[in-house]
Amino acid sequence: MKRLLVITLAIMLVGAFTVSAMAVDHEFGGYWNTRFFSASNFSGDDSESADGRYVDTRTRLYYTAVLSDELKLVNKFEMDADWGDEERGDIGADGKNFEIKHSYADFSLGDWNVKLGTQGKAFARGFMFDSDFSGAIVRYVGDDMVIPFVWIKAFEGGYGEDANDLDFDFYGVDPVFNMGDLKLNPFVLYMTTAGGGSLDADNEWTGWSGTVGLDAVAVYYLGANVDYSADMFSAWLTGIYSAGSVDVADDYEAAIGTDSFDVVGYLFAVGGSLNLDAISVHGQFFYATGDDDGLDDDEASDFFVPAGQSYYWAEIMGYGTFDDQVSNGSPGDAISNIMAFNVGVDLPMDSLTLTVDIWNASLIEGDDTDLGTEIDVAATYQLLDDLKLKVVAAYLAAGDATGDENPTEVGAILSLSF
């Protein structure tokens, strides 16, 4: 009898687990690429210190557990390998670079949707923020609008007396209103910490180990994205105004010459495309304020974002396809103290698309401001339905702000997605 009870219990447990597993839908996806690229003269001189030829591979695996229409668990994993690197891609191939990109619960309660955990988010096309973070996005979903409320935990101060003062948090809201061919996306983002921050020499936020000590930071950003699309053309614009204040740590007041400084900056960007039967023409322009005296007075007039800013543009000056390094003098994807103009064409030909872009960029402030004129040529070929090859060649006619040598970059990227 006892044996029969044990067998019956085992069957019931197996059945329970089987029913539970069958109630969960499993969604898998991913992305893979291998890049071959060569760069020269990125250092701004003839030292060849930034020259190199590289091959690397990136794999991203996506797994989502769909428990119901209202509840799912989203996970994204990433593995990188630089070919020949002793930590990840040498003989033996025991890769150690494994990252958890996203892991969050996604659930809906009536008209409200919540994403809680490590996830990604973009504000203002990346001109202000585009990165992964830990935090929450709570969205109200209406018929023609979505209103997200965002909390980003940028830094955790830990335990101890006054440790909470070190916390660095972002709070934002960026509703999207769909009005036929027009989409309006106003936004506000507030960044704050009660004390203990730092900037490096390039005004980049470095957590708590930089060269310039800060206390309280309270900076906010106001702006909007506007998008219009029609059958033959589309247009977009973004405007951002930043303001606020930053207190300087006591130990740095004498060196900087002030105990605090005001943040006042702005960014404007516009772009669009015209689609014809055999050709597509596109272009864009952006302008972000600079500061002619750095932190030497009580005002920071450059468009400055402490962390999370990322907007890719030209291949050499703006990271582009290979996102490994940028030419000397360029702010890269952290758009600040720069004006840039682009015009380009796309030529689709069956499975092949040829793209040619011309960029001209200059700094707003500085002794030398001309970054130069860049030409980028890319050919994208669809080898199979989910497999494509992209070949890129780029050349920058360097301006005074870039250096004496003209940077070049060539490479190819083979990618698949599923």
Structural write-up:
By secondary structure, the protein is mostly beta strands. The protein has two helices and 21 strands. The protein has a domain of 202 residues: Porin, CATH 2.40.160. The protein has a 21-stranded mixed sheet that branches. The radius of gyration is 25 Å and the shape is globular.
Short overview:
The chain is mostly beta strands. The protein has helices spanning about 1-20, 255; strands at about 25-40, 50-70, 70-80, 100-110, 110-125, 130-140, 145-155, 170-175, 175-180, 180-195, 195-200, 210-230, 235-250, 260-275, 280-290, 300, 340-350, 350-365, 370-385, 385-400, 410-415.
**Overall average pLDDT:** 88
CATH class of the domain at 110-311, named: Mainly Beta
C-alpha Rg, in Å?
25 Å
Helix amount, in percent?
A: under 10%
Oligomer: single chain
**CATH topology group of the domain at 110-311:** Porin
Biggest sheet details: 21 strands, mixed
Strand runs, count? 21
- Flag low-confidence runs: 4-9, 11-17
Output the helix-strand order: HEEEEEEEEEEEEEHEEEEEEEE
| Secondary structural class | mainly beta
CATH architecture of the domain at 110-311: Beta Barrel
Q: Give the count of helical stretches.
A: 2
C-alpha termini separation: 53 Å
Strand content: over 45%
What coarse outline follows from CA principal-axis ratios?
A: globular
